[in-house]
Amino acid sequence: MQELTLAVVGIDFPNPDRSRSNRRYELLLCVPGEAVSLVPEPKNPHDPHAVAVFSIRGVQLGYLTAERAPWIGARLRAGEEVAAVFQGMGDTAAYVRVRFGGGVPTLPVGREASKPMDEDFYPDPEGSEWGA
């Protein structure tokens, strides 16, 4: 089994559907660990190796990068078993976690969880006196 994180680009382009659905908005609805679909687009006029990424709601999120798409697309066309989940979103790209060979991809532990707290950071005690 092999797992890897892949970038999803083109997140600021509108989709070609009738409603011109917004990819960035759909990405904001995605939850880490939520299933996504990888769909090869051999008839794509810009890149015959393009692999589109769709949310669980069927809305396109973008495309795998041009560097990874030929390799991933070839594995998909060969019938290799693959599962993909939404991992997260950055400023200019989103990220999906892909697992080949069966099973569900595991999300890596986030950097935030392993980052030490600043020495001068003192959180408020649990609960507040004014009930917020």
UniProtKB/TrEMBL annotation:
The keyword Protein biosynthesis does not apply. Residues 30-79 form the HIRAN domain. The keyword Hydrolase applies. Transmembrane segments: none annotated. Residues 119-132 have a biased composition (Acidic residues). Residues 110-132 are annotated as: Disordered. Pfam families: HIRAN. It comes from the Bacteria. GO terms for molecular function: hydrolase activity, acting on acid anhydrides, in phosphorus-containing anhydrides; nucleic acid binding; zinc ion binding. Keywords: Hydrolase, Metal-binding. Gene3D superfamilies: 3.30.70.2330. InterPro entries: HIRAN. This is HIRAN domain-containing protein.
